């Protein structure tokens, strides 16, 4: 009975070790002594010979590879550092196994990167491709050309390159300082031009304001002289009319005005000759003699 249980256990273990499962995200190779004997691409259960055959599974999903930044020189001679990534999948597991051996995805990605970087440099450094082209909307066409070249060269590896994209396109580190200095000088020049134009406009406004002040002052002075002249004429007319109506009263009024002006403020001392007519109206109550 004990031997029966052992045989049953061995049979169960053997059965379990002969079964393998492939899900929808994988493809599998059945190897016998390192040689491919069967390919299983459909998901589900598979069978192999225990202790003789082994199963190697590969990812059947779309994979991503970020390449190392590479330096390119477009036709205008302006060097750029390009950072790219690729989307790819294993299209033929048999060819993939034969190409990369036991290295698997690590070896495949190293070899794929060795394909992508030269293609990127060759396409971006071709005649007619400038740094402006790479940085413009035309880069989509350049990426399509890189993808087509990489797809053809990666096919012998059992890989299908789906897409290649440029993530970043920068200047080399040693050129950044010079570029920033040039940009700073350009902005300073623009600022100096703006300041000069502002000063010129301020000078024009200031000159116009000074001219307006002079014109307004001159106009005001002229109007004041006209008004003063009209007032003097009116005053003289009043004086003439008063003189014509009563010459003696007019003379008396003129004398009082002269007294007021002569004795204005603290000035109460005057030196006159005895025969002066200045105080005639003060010497007699009969008026001037």
From TrEMBL:
InterPro entries registered for this protein in UniProt: Band_7, Band_7/SPFH_dom_sf, HflC
Example of a GO cellular component annotation carried by this entry: membrane
Topology with respect to the bilayer: Single-pass membrane protein
Domain Band: 17-183
One Pfam family this sequence matches: Band_7
MF annotations from Gene Ontology: peptidase activity
One GO biological process term: proteolysis
SUPFAM superfamilies named among the record's database cross-references: Band 7/SPFH domain (SSF117892)
Signal peptide limits: none
Keywords noted in UniProt: Hydrolase, Membrane, Protease, Transmembrane, Transmembrane helix
Subcellular location: Membrane
Function: HflC and HflK could regulate a protease.
Family statement drawn from the similarity comment of this UniProt entry: Belongs to the band 7/mec-2 family. HflC subfamily.
UniProt protein name: Protein HflC
């Amino acid at each position: 009975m004990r031997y029966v249980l052992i045989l049953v256990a061995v049979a169960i273990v053997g059965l379990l070790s002969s079964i393998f499962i492939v899900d929808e995200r994988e493809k599998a190779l059945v190897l016998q002594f390192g040689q491919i004997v069967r390919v299983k691409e459909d998901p589900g259960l598979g069978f192999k010979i225990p202790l003789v055959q082994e199963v190697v599974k590969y990812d059947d999903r779309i994979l991503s590879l970020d390449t190392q930044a590479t330096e390119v020189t477009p036709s205008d001679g302006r060097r750029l550092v390009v950072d790219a990534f690729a989307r790819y999948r294993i299209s033929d597991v048999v060819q993939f196994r034969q190409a990369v051996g036991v290295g698997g995805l690590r070896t495949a990605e190293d070899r794929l990167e060795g394909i992508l970087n030269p293609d990127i440099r060759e396409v971006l450094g071709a005649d007619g491709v400038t740094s402006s082209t790479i940085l413009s909307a035309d880069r989509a066409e350049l990426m399509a050309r890189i993808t087509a070249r990489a797809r053809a060269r990666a096919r012998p590896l059992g890989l299908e390159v789906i897409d290649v994209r440029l993530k970043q396109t920068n200047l080399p580190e040693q050129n950044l300082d010079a570029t920033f200095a040039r940009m700073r000088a350009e902005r300073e020049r623009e600022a100096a031009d703006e300041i000069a134009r502002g000063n010129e406009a301020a000078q024009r406004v200031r000159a116009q304001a000074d001219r307006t002040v002079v014109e307004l002052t001159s106009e005001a002075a002229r109007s004041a002289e006209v008004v003063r002249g009209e007032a003097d004429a009116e005053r003289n007319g009043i004086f003439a009319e008063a003189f014509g109506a009563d010459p003696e009263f007019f003379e008396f009024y003129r004398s009082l005005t002269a007294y007021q002006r002569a004795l204005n403020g603290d000035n109460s001392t005057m030196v006159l000759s005895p025969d002066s007519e200045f105080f005639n109206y003060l010497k007699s109550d009969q008026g001037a003699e």
